[in-house]
Write a structure and sequence with these properties.
It holds the Pfam family ThiS. InterPro entries: Beta-grasp_dom_sf, Mopterin_synth/thiamin_S_b, Thi_S, ThiS/MoaD-like. It comes from Bacillus coahuilensis p1.1.43. The mean pLDDT is 94. It is built from 1 helix and 4 strands, in the order ββαββ. It is α+β, with helices and mostly antiparallel strands. Strands 2-1-4-3 form a 4-stranded mixed sheet, with no helix packed on it. It has one domain: Beta-grasp domain (Ubiquitin-like (UB roll)), CATH 3.10.20.30.
């Protein structure tokens, strides 16, 4: 399946079907990011059930701390 992630097209395994699986596949810690899919921001509690599908546009924003 092809997804546009942060403006770049990526080919992702068809076995990745949810936001949670996508983050795991990409090696992203779900606790330090926000995900937007096609302009919608799902709640973190819904990452296990929110689907990703071929052609979706995904934005992943990481939190950065510092001082």
């Amino acid at each position: 399946m092809k997804l546009v992630i942060n403006g770049r097209t990526h080919t992702i395994s068809e076995h990745v079907t949810t936001v949670s699986e996508l983050l795991y596949h990409l090696g992203v810690d779900r606790n330090i990011c926000i995900v937007e899919i096609n302009g919608e921001i799902p709640k973190k509690g819904d990452y296990l059930t929110t689907s990703v599908e071929d052609g979706d546009c995904v934005e992943i924003v990481h939190f950065v701390g510092g001082g």
